[in-house]
Amino acid sequence: MHFSSCLCALLVALVYQVSGMDTVIGLYGETIEVPCNNGAPKPKDLFMTKWKYDDGDLLTQLKDQDASVIATDKYKDRVSMAENSSLLIAAATLKDEKTFTCMVVAGADISEYPVKLLIHKAPTGVEITALATELEIGKPTQLGQCRTSDANPAASITWFKNKKPLVADGKGIIISSNVKVDEATGLTTTSSTLQYTAEKGDTAALFTCGALNTLSSPVSFTVTYPTERISLHVISKGPLMEGANMTLKCKADGNPPPTSFNFHILGKVVKVENSDSYTVTDVTRESTGEYKCSIIDNAKMEDSKNITINYLDMSLSPSGKVMKSFGEGLALTLQTHASGELKVSWTKDNGKLDSSPKFDKLTYSDSGKYEVVVTMGALIKKDSFELVVEGVPVIRRVAKRRSEDGQHKVLTCEAEGSPKPTVAWSVNGTSADESPYVNGKITHKLTIVPTVNLTVVCTVSNEHGQDTRTINVSTYSSDEGDTTKLVVGVIVGLLLATVVVGLAYWLYMKKSKQGSWKTGEKEDGSTEESKKLEEKIEEKLEENSQKVEV
């Protein structure tokens, strides 16, 4: 009676455990641990633990004893029991996918804990085979077959383009899969075929396939499509100008591109095979015009371009070395002819000029090297001339002064002429100083100590002639006498001027008095004024007389 009630209770427990059965996933070829009662601690009154499966018992363990293997089949050498009563199965295979039950006897209770075991295996690799040789736009083509093997459960394959998954749409993307099972191992091999309709943008696309976390090596394909448009390009180093070579290149957007073209060179057709380029050598301004290129087997597919050959002509007159005389005029002519807008700049002796030079009346300062630069974009032309203005030298000024120490006389002779004049003095000096020759001008200084009064001559000369000027130089005592005479002369002059003014006024007043007498008018006031004026004149005369005496 007690056994029956226990059996009923056991059946109820078994039904409950099966309905809540645990599942354990193990890896193929590895040792798998199947927990008893989900790894719960052993009961204190444990008597026995036993593992079994549908075909029989595997092993048992009594309290405080080692586990004993009961199995006599394939599990005989592959099973053992862990310290926590878990079942250990070595070298797991797909044939181990079954339900294992842990039976625990504790006191008067018997409990069973079934566990479902699943064996998984990742695929050994993923690769793409049976690749298409090329893809043609708009044409469905079997791109390739992706294959992965030795997996459980069967692997699911995904196709990618540029790392983005492809989704079958039944039109441009068609994916079909197939799974085969190895009879010996039970492992599966999955293959997936991709049929793909290429687009123009797939030229550089990378295709891969993957299963779980494993990806194949990327593959790319040559995508072919017909030419829809061509374009003409001009290749040259710098701007196109006369004398340069011009290369015409015809580009087509087809793949593969055409290999032969017709080039239309100013109305003349040139057939070029196995090349997309044609070079026109030594172009001239007459080469300006419309150029075309077209496909040989489709003349309607063409492109054209108007090409301008840049040119720049410049003529400068005069040029080279120009010799002119002082005071002459020089006509300067710059003629230009170009295909675009020009910019003209002038320099003189490497210094920039604000405007074009004009030479109405030449001076020595006009001498120098003149260069004109004419530019049009990147085109540059230059020309130059050297102007030399020559003439008879002329002395512009002679002067004398005392030196700073007061012991010498410094004579100065300033002259102008070209070529550089030679300066000569009629006397010898203690030292001579010559300024730099700039713009046809030169200054020569001579220091002397005169012992007598003399006349000094400055002579300047060059190959065209000479000029002379004189200057009177006196000794220091003569200079002092000359200074005294000069002062006396000035004072006497002032005195005579005062006398003349006073005499004139006196005569005027005398005539005025005679007129008054004739009319009988009283002139007392006028007489008084005349007396005062006479007194002032006398005082002025005395003052000047005193200055003269001094």
UniProtKB/TrEMBL annotation:
Residues 512-550 are annotated as: Disordered. Keywords: Adaptive immunity, Cell adhesion, Cell membrane, Cell projection, Disulfide bond, Glycoprotein, Immunity, Immunoglobulin domain, Membrane, Repeat, Signal, Transmembrane, Transmembrane helix. Pfam families: C2-set_2, ig, Ig_3. Residues 29-104, 123-220, 226-308, 393-474 form the Ig-like domain. One of its GO terms (biological process) is cell adhesion. SMART domains: IG, IGc2. The chain crosses the membrane at residues 486-508. Residues 1-20 form the signal peptide. It is found in: Cell membrane; Cell projection, Axon; Cell projection, Dendrite. GO terms for cellular component: axon; dendrite; plasma membrane. This is Activated leukocyte cell adhesion molecule b. The keyword Ribonucleoprotein does not apply. InterPro entries: CD80_C2-set, Ig-like_dom, Ig-like_dom_sf, Ig-like_fold, Ig_sub, Ig_sub2, Immunoglobulin_dom, Surface_Rcpt/Adhesion_Mol. It comes from Salmo trutta. It is a single-pass type I membrane protein. Residues 519-550 have a biased composition (Basic and acidic residues). The keyword Transmembrane helix applies. PANTHER family: CD166 ANTIGEN, CELL SURFACE GLYCOPROTEIN MUC18-RELATED. SUPFAM superfamilies: Immunoglobulin.
